[in-house]
Structures are given as C-alpha cells and as structure tokens.
C-alpha cells in the first residue's frame, strides 16, 4: 500500500478518538492500537472482559445450491461436516498451496455460508474466489464487508456482557457456532469465536448501528470490570495462544502444513485448490516449519524480522514476536528447518547485533490457570 | 497533565538530566513514559563509555516498540540503574526518581545551558 493511500475509517473512528484511543495504520485502516495501555487491556481480557472494534474485517455471503460444493473445492477444511449454525477455521490456498487467507466459514443455512476474512486480504480473497467460480456452479457471492461493522467481546465475563446487552433478544453463541438474529435495528450475526483464547464472541451488524451497539457494550464491559481494547492487546493475546497472523506468520510463500495448521486441512475430502501441492510437500518432507519460541534469559522482546540463528547460523527471521504480558517473557514464532524446530531446541534471536537464547516450546505459550 | 520538575533540564527527545547532582542522573520524562506505556525492558548503556551529546546510548522497550535514548550531554557513563533489570516498570511509576536510567559525569557542564528548562519543555510537549 502506498503512503498516499488514505487510511479507511470504521464507523467507530470518532468514538475511539473521543475515548482517548491512539490510532495507528493497520491493513490500510486507521485503527485504535490502545486506549489506556496494552498490558492493562490484555489483562482485562484474561481476567474479565474486553471489547474490540473489528469492523475492518471482511464478510462474504456465499449461497445457492452449489455453495457447499464450491466452498469445499476452494477451502482446506471439510465444509460438508458443518450443520446449519456451525462454523470452522479454514484456509484459502493458491494452486501452489500457499496461504491466501485464513478465515472462519459458518453454515447459516443448508445453502448459505458466512465467511469472515482478514481485512488485509478482502480484495485478494474476493478476486481469488471469483476466478475459482465456474459459470455452472450455481453459486451467488456477496461481499458485505463495506457495510458490515464488527465487535469482538472477549473474556471470562463475555457471557455477562451478552446478557446485559441483549437480554432475551438472543442467546449466547457457543464456540464455533453462529446465531443470525433479526432485530429492530437490523440483522445481527453472533459468532462464537475470537482471537484471544478466552471465551467470547464476534458480533457483526449493519454499519449504521455500530455506534449504538459499541456504546452499550462498552458500558456493559466496564460494569463487568473490563475495558475497550485496541489492536495492541489483540496481538499480544493471540500470540500468547500461538494463533498465526496473516501477513506475519502466513503468506502465499508457505503452506498450512509448514504453518502447523494441518488439523484444518482435509486431504481426504476430495480435490481442492492447492491439494496436490500439499500432498507433494507432505511426501517430500517439509522444508521448514513455524516454531514457537520463548526467550530463556533477560532479553529485549523479540520483534518481527529479527534474525534467528540455530547452531551458529542465521536460519530465518522472527515472524511474530512480543513481550507476553501474562508470562512476562519474550515470545515469538519463526519458520525454522525441522532440525531446529523440535521442542526444547535452542535458538538465538539477534537483537541489535547481539544474540539472545530462546527455547522452542509447545503452543500455546499461555494456558489458563485451572480453576 | 504531565509532571515537569523545575530543577531538571530536558532534551527535545524527552530525556531529563539533573544538573544539580554530580554525576547527573538521566531518565525519560513523565510525558515520555505516558506515551510509551508499559516499559518491559531496558537495554542499558555500558558503564565507562564516553559519549557525546545527542549520541544514542541505550534502548528502552515497551510492548509496542523499541525507543532510542540519547545522551543529553557529553561525558562518561559512570553508573546504570540495576533495579530496572528486574523492574523496568519503575520507568513508568517513578520517571524522575526510582526510574533513572544512567548517571553521567559531564565533560563540560556548560552543555546544560543548551538544554531546555522546565518552561521550554512544558511548551514543547503542550
């Protein structure tokens, strides 16, 4: 994106500024990175509840008699397993098996699907889906991204917030389910998902109603001991869970198998775009793999693009990296050769010309303390 | 409003130095810590290093980003604040007291006059 492209604004932009948010560019949008501080917001989500503006994300509605077959042909997970009301994490690949996007696909009815895609990939996803669509597929696609706003309510008190805001209007969407409800203010899509590792849901709505809902939800979130949260906390929360971020950890240059997302790829469901490449890569052996690491001593936080060394040689770079607010140590992910990717192996992260040791660990970095 | 003590001198890049003490402690201002939020790591300068005014001497890291810290005056770094190693949050909680970063023995105390006083720095961040 060139520097002269104006940043897009969500319908909540003015409200964020009014609430004291610091705005930064993200995926072509002017988004709140924080309101009071990343660590406070992060802890609010882990301990009570937070609300995020996710209006930048994209929504596609794919419907028609051929929708299921079409989506099963372009997405990696097996969409035929979804009953109406259910959703799954899945990936959209190039013919060579590279990741165009990771997304969540929900079946809203027998013949209709609701896809939630990354903001930075809306155009690429749409173009790719159009090129994959054949005339006789009997599928209709609608891109609702430009008139849909979204809020993510995340944290152990997300249910409390939902009850306070919606009352009896709708029930709480359980994990990996979707509830589509028509209200006086228009349709609402409530999706039992999130990007934080906490209980919660993502709530999509017509843009015109976003400010009304956001103010109500912020009030309920604060009453429950939480706060509005920016993209800074969203990033530290997702990285503590080891969830990949498209653009950092996923790209068209690597397959979901390299990214450790094989669980969401069904090689046995029949053909889909990229399948042959994945089968060939599996047979040949992976060239590298996304490893999770944590710094083992006192060290500056690892950050994207810092060089990564193994046994004295630079073998890659940090994809995602930050200081974990929950653990108080630096954590990150990097593509490394399989020999370096085993749990317990020692990597070194080069930070301002010095090497700091890190240990390859199992994901997630953070596990909820058992109650 | 940010706290800007009268007794200190300031750089445009938001470091403070205390000219009334010798060697002089250096830190970041209340305004700077509020902008950075949550300092999580301080990469200190080397004790014994000779530095020039405006030289980048160390880095402090928040969750969000790494920020360079510059020497307000020329001189020798004679001490670093060891407490920041285990508690970098001191920079946020006590920017002018417990959160000092290093002490410098100025080679030319006249350089203090080139720095902003509290009034000028207050206008700088207004």
What structural keywords apply?
heterodimer, A: 371 residues, alpha+beta, Gyrase A, domain 2, 6-stranded mixed β-sheet, 6-stranded antiparallel beta barrel, 19 strands, globular, B: alpha+beta, OB fold (Dihydrolipoamide Acetyltransferase, E2P), 3-stranded antiparallel β-sheet, 32% strand
The pair of chains with the biggest contact is:
A-B, 17 and 12 residues
Strand content of chain A: 25-35%
- And the CATH topology of chain B? OB fold (Dihydrolipoamide Acetyltransferase, E2P)
Q: Number of DSSP helices of chain A?
A: 8
Q: Which radius of gyration of chain B do the C-alpha atoms yield?
A: 13 Å
Count the strands of chain A? 19
Largest sheet of chain A: 6 strands, mixed
Distance between the termini of chain B: 9 Å
Write the element-wise H/E pattern of chain B from the N-terminal end onward: EEEHEEEEEHHEH
CATH architecture of chain B: Beta Barrel
Low-confidence stretches of chain B: none
* Arrangement of strands in the largest sheet of chain A: 10-11-12-9-3-13
Please, what is the CATH homologous superfamily of one domain in chain A?
Probable tRNA modification gtpase trme, domain 1
Q: Please tell me the overall pLDDT of chain A.
A: 96
Please, what is the CATH homologous superfamily of chain B? RNA polymerase II/Efflux pump adaptor protein, barrel-sandwich hybrid domain
**CATH architectural designation of one domain in chain A:** 2-Layer Sandwich
């Amino acid at each position: 994106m060139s520097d002269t492209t104006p940043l897009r604004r969500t319908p909540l932009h003015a409200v964020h500024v009014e609430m004291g948010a610091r705005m930064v560019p993200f995926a072509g949008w002017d988004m709140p990175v924080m309101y009071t501080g990343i660590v406070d917001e992060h802890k609010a989500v882990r301990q009570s509840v937070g609300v995020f503006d996710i209006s930048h994300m994209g929504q596609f509605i794919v419907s028609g008699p051929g929708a299921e077959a079409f989506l099963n042909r372009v997405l990696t997970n097996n969409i035929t397993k979804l009953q109406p009301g259910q959703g799954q994490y899945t990936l959209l690949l190039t013919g060579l098996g590279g990741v165009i996007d990771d997304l969540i696909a929900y079946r809203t009815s027998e013949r209709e699907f609701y896809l939630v895609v990354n903001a930075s990939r809306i155009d690429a996803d749409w173009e790719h889906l159009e090129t994959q669509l054949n005339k006789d597929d009997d599928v209709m696609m609608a891109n609702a991204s430009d008139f849909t706003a979204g809020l993510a309510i995340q944290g152990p008190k997300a249910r409390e917030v939902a009850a306070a805001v919606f009352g009896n209007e709708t029930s709480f969407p359980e994990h990996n389910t979707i509830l589509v409800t028509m209200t006086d203010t228009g349709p609402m899509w409530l999706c039992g998902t999130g990007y934080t590792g906490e209980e919660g849901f993502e709530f999509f709505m017509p843009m015109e109603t976003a400010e009304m809902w956001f103010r109500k939800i912020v009030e309920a979130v604060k009453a429950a001991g939480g706060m509005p949260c920016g993209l800074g906390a969203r990033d530290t929360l997702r990285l503590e869970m080891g969830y990949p971020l498209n653009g950092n950890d996923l790209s068209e240059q690597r397959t979901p198998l390299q990214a450790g997302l094989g669980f969401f790829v069904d090689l046995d469901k029949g053909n889909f775009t990229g399948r042959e490449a994945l089968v060939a890569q599996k047979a040949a052996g992976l060239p590298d793999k996304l490893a999770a690491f944590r710094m083992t001593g006192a060290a500056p936080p690892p950050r994207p693009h810092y060089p990564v060394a193994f046994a004295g040689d630079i073998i890659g770079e940090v994809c995602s990296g930050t200081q974990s607010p929950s653990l108080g140590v630096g954590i990150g992910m990097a593509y490394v050769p399989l020999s370096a990717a085993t749990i317990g192996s020692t990597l070194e992260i080069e930070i301002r010309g010095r090497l700091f040791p890190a240990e390859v660990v199992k994901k997630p970095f953070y596990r909820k303390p058992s109650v | 409003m940010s706290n800007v003590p009268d007794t200190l001198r300031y750089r445009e890049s938001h470091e403070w130095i205390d000219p009334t003490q010798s060697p002089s402690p250096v830190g970041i201002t209340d305004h700077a810590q509020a902008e950075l939020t949550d300092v999580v790591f301080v990469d200190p300068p080397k004790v014994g290093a000779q530095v020039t005014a405006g030289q980048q001497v160390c880095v402090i890291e928040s969750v969000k980003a790494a920020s360079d810290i510059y020497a307000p005056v020329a001189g020798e770094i004679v001490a670093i604040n060891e407490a920041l190693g285990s508690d970098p949050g001191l920079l946020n909680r006590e920017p002018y007291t417990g959160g000092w970063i290093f002490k410098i023995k100025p080679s030319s105390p006249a350089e203090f006059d080139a720095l902003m006083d509290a009034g000028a720095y207050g206008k700088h961040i207004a």
